[in-house]
Structure formats: C-alpha cells, structure tokens
Amino acid sequence: MTLSKNKIKYIQSLKDKKRRMEYGTFVAEGKKIVSDLLVSCQCQFIAVLPEMLNEFAYLNDRGIEIITASEEELKKASFLKTAPPVIGVFYQPKNDFSVVDLKNNIHLVLDGIQDPGNMGTIVRIADWFGIENIFCSPDTVDIYLPKTVQSTMGAIARVKVHYIDLNIFLKNNSDLLIYGTFLDGEDIYKTNLSENGLIVMGNEGSGIRSYVEKWVNRRLFIPNYPALRTTSESLNVAAATAIVCSEFRRRE
What we know:
The protein is α/β, with parallel strands linked by helices. The protein folds into two domains: 5-91, CATH 3.30.1330.30; 97-251, 3-Layer(aba) Sandwich (Alpha/beta knot). Helices cover 31% and strands 22% of the residues. The protein contains nine helices and ten strands. The protein has helices at 5-13, 17-23, 31-40, 71-77, 116-128, 146-151, 166-172, 210-213, 237-251; strands at 25-29, 43-48, 65-68, 86-91, 106-111, 133-136, 160-163, 178-187, 197-202, 218-221. The model has no long low-confidence stretch (mean pLDDT 93).
C-alpha cells in the first residue's frame, strides 16, 4: 500500500489543534521518536520507506497498518524541512492524573508556556530527571503540536502531560510544598529543598501569574554570577527548569 493523497491530507490536517482534538491523534516523525512512541502509545499507522520495512515488520503482529511510502510522498506529508524515513500517527493517550501520587515525587507545573521548543525541551528535562508528570494551564502550548512533539525527542513517550485548571489543582493540593521561581525568592543553592512537591515554572514573558503565585509557598531564586554584575534580565524558562530540576535531584 502506498501513501495516498487522502492519507497525506489527513496527516497535514493534524497540524491544526481542532483536527487533533476531533480525531484524537497526533503526528510523530523520525525513527527514534516513532520507535519510542510505539512502546507506550497506540499507533494508528506508520508510513515508511521501502528499505526500512523490515525494521517495522513486527508491527504486523500488533495489527498496526504499515504503509510503504516514497521519499516524495513522505516529503509531502512531513512538517519538517527534511522529510524523515518514517512518519507515525498515534492516538493521544488518556492521562488520568487522579491516580498520580503527588506526595512521593516532584512534579512540574507549567503556567502559560507558549513556545513549542521550550515546551518540548521541558518535557525532555522532566524525562532526564525522572519527573513523570507535568501539569499545564489550558493555555500552555499543545504538547501534540507537531513542532512540540519533535522537540521532545521521544520524551513524550515517557512523560505524562495534563492540561487542567491550575487554580483548582493547586488549591486542592495546597498542603503540598509548592515551589516557584521569583526574583525575590530564596537562593536555590542555600535553601532546603524537598524530595517531593510541585515546581511551578511561568510564562516566557510574564512569569508566574498572580492567581497561580498565591498558591506558591516556597519562593526560589536562581542567582546570577557574580551577584552584583549586570546580566541578562532573566533566564530562558527551559534553562531555568533544567537548573531547578538538577538542584532538586542533587539534594536527594
């Protein structure tokens, strides 16, 4: 079976959030990301170059449709500048955060992250530091946007992303330690950090919004070096997330 015009049109339609929600699917491109997702997500179909068919032949036993595609067909279907050898369409997993044990690990909370690259990098950081759940405000960029999926470099297969009302979520869990980064916070390298709790990271431009900030009970600050030197106004949110997560894990 070849990659038909209708299939290409369908793949391209998944760039639109409305269509992703309607079909409950998303696109992943490239051997690594597709292979990672095949372990944890239900796959609708993959389109692959003829010379790579043998690598995915095992999917026949799982009832997954395998489509042989030419380079030209993959190029038409792809969202990347250089078409990959394999494209997969997966069903969006139903992540149930009600079963998440919030009290025995650290979890990330994202308040209005807008850039797909930042979002994907944060998911990779969470994966690296063993953080399995990320709780996002509804206006945080969609994890299933093709650019975001690619930016996760496969980490999306192991990190669960939940979109919820943060005000209600944080209110219901206000008994937990809730950390946030602020310019008037305590030096992260000198303050006590817990092995569990929620870590809030704010929007690229405006930081943590007031309705979220009111639930933060541990304010942290990432100091520049040296302290009195004039530096950039702030850190990129993904870079800040990496520093914070690293310091939390270092203390364990």
